[in-house]
Specification:
Largest sheet: none
Strand content: under 5%
Order of helices and strands: HHH
Helix content: 40-55%
C-alpha cells in the first residue's frame, strides 16, 4: 500500500471544515480502487472500498460506499500499460 501523506492540524484560524482529513482519505481510496477494480461487480468494488477505508482508519459510510461502487463498476477497463 502506498503511504499516505502526513496530515498536520492547522493552527488557530483554520479555514478548513471539520472532517476534511477523512474526505481526503476517502478520495484517495476511491481513486485507487477506481484504477484497480473498474468494471468489476458492484459488490466486489464496495467490499474493496470498505476494506481499504478501514485499513486507513476511516469508518465507511455505507450509502456513500454504495454510490462509489455503482459508479466504478460501470467504468470500462483501462488498457494495459505497456510503457517501458
Amino acid at each position: 500500500m502506498e503511504p499516505l501523506a502526513s496530515v498536520r492540524l492547522a493552527g488557530s484560524g483554520a479555514s478548513r471544515p471539520a472532517g476534511w482529513q477523512v474526505q481526503v482519505r476517502v478520495d484517495y481510496v476511491v481513486n485507487k480502487v477506481a484504477r484497480t477494480h473498474r468494471g468489476e461487480s458492484e459488490s466486489d468494488v464496495a467490499k474493496e472500498i470498505h476494506e481499504q477505508l478501514r485499513a486507513i482508519g476511516v469508518v465507511p459510510n455505507g450509502h456513500q460506499v454504495e454510490q462509489y461502487a455503482k459508479a466504478i463498476s460501470v467504468l470500462p477497463l483501462l488498457p494495459p500499460n505497456n510503457a517501458k
